[in-house]
Amino acid sequence: xxxxxxxxxxxITPEIEAFIAGRITSGRFRNASEVMRAALHLPERAEPRKDxxxxxxxxxxxxxxxxxx
Length: 69
Hints:
This protein has a domain at about 10-45. The termini are far apart. The longest helix has 15 residues, at about 30-45. By secondary structure, the chain is mainly alpha-helical. It has three helices and no strands.
């Protein structure tokens, strides 16, 4: 069975609304959900993980290892 996203309602400030609108207007994102998903993934990327070396190639589409450069 395919994964179906859950809908959540959140309150945001006018500044965040303007930020989201700007990202959509720029063409980088198609809608507010895409902007919010990208923002919510940032903490995951910032935190070091035990499996990071194995994931580098999958995450960026390359086998480049930044520790070897």
